[in-house]
Design a protein that fits this description.
12 helices, two-stranded antiparallel ribbon, alpha/beta, single chain, 22% strand, elongated, 3 domains, Arc Repressor Mutant, subunit A
Length: 318
């Protein structure tokens, strides 16, 4: 029998080291050597050496360098599946009942989702698994083609990604809102034609990188449209909380997520039946990341909360 890590006879690859497999698992999950080193408590050089050793054992590349970090090859994905088995066995020795999960789960999500779904979901998880830490990065952007540094991305609109899974979480809606004081001063909005000339509070057009959110702007019209009233720009921001507060301050009519605007009694929804923009939240993650137990419980918590708050997200809360 060939000892683990030794050279096999007749030039065949040797059996891979379990330690090397676990290092690959850490790199595969994070996409970066430095992040893997931090999670394992070793240095970058050790990670590099372990990966080189594993590739020598398997007789091929397990990782390829991309602009966004390290991606698994087909050989690497097969090795990661074996590494997950090793990881599960080791975890089982430490915690036979599987009750205690630990680790850091990093999430990139839009401002509103981060505050109203991801954050309370993280609290629910920590009530059961206090050793799971959840890090939230608020960002409104398209899904990355190379996932590095983040375990989960929450994006708006159907993502087009490679080597990742995309899961539909649920829908939410945008509506037009203003304060009663603003409407009293500038006139009620009874029809879409009445929107003409009113200031629109929304995203900074030149900095918006999400197609579905950009299309939503059409409710306020544009210079090339003859059948939609033209609204002029008002206070714009990359942060949806600024949209809400600017609208509450009287900056104009805001195109706001209903689940955020409906929380404020000073905001009045206008053209409720005529203007409703329905958008979708999607979750994007590597397959190997989704198989991590600590990631799985966070995903389950977010999905459960989206389901529980579906009426609120769609502006139908009582």
């Amino acid at each position: 029998m060939t000892p683990i890590g030794s050279s096999a006879p007749h030039g065949r690859p040797s059996l891979p080291s379990a330690d090397d497999l676990l290092v690959l698992l850490a790199v595969g999950r994070s996409g970066r050597f430095t992040a893997a080193a931090d999670s394992l408590g070793v240095n970058h050089t050790t990670v590099s050496r372990r990966i080189a050793s594993l590739e020598k054992s398997l007789g091929g590349r397990v990782l390829v360098k991309t602009s966004g970090g390290w991606e698994l090859t087909d050989l690497g994905r097969g090795a990661v599946r074996a590494a997950e088995t090793v990881d599960g066995v080791v975890r089982g020795l430490v915690d036979p009942a599987g009750a205690s999960l630990r680790g850091v789960v990093r999430i990139s999500a839009t401002d509103g989702f981060s505050a109203y779904i991801a954050a309370p979901a993280a609290v629910h998880v920590q009530e059961r698994h206090p050793d799971i830490a959840v890090e939230l990065v608020a960002a409104t952007r398209r899904a990355s083609q190379q996932r590095s540094g983040m375990d989960i991305e929450i994006v708006v609109g159907t993502p087009h990604v490679h080597r990742a899974e995309a899961l539909h979480l649920g829908d939410y809606c945008l509506g037009l809102y203003a304060t009663r004081e603003y409407l009293d001063s500038h006139g009620d909005v009874a029809t879409r034609a009445d929107l003409s000339g009113h200031p629109l509070v929304y995203f900074v057009e030149s900095m918006l990188r999400v197609d579905d959110l950009d299309l939503a702007r059409s409710v306020g019209g544009d210079a090339d449209s003859s059948d939609v009233p033209v609204m002029r720009s008002s206070v714009s921001s990359t942060n949806v909380f600024v949209h809400v507060e600017a609208t509450r301050a009287g900056a104009g009519i805001g195109l706001l997520p209903c689940f955020m605007a409906d929380r404020h009694d000073d905001l009045v929804r206008v053209l409720h039946s005529e203007v409703t923009v329905t958008l979708a939240y999607w979750l994007v993650a590597r397959s190997e990341t989704l198989r991590r137990p600590e990631v799985g419980v966070v995903v389950d918590a977010m999905r459960a909360l989206v389901t529980a708050r579906s009426a609120e997200l769609l502006g139908r809360a009582e």
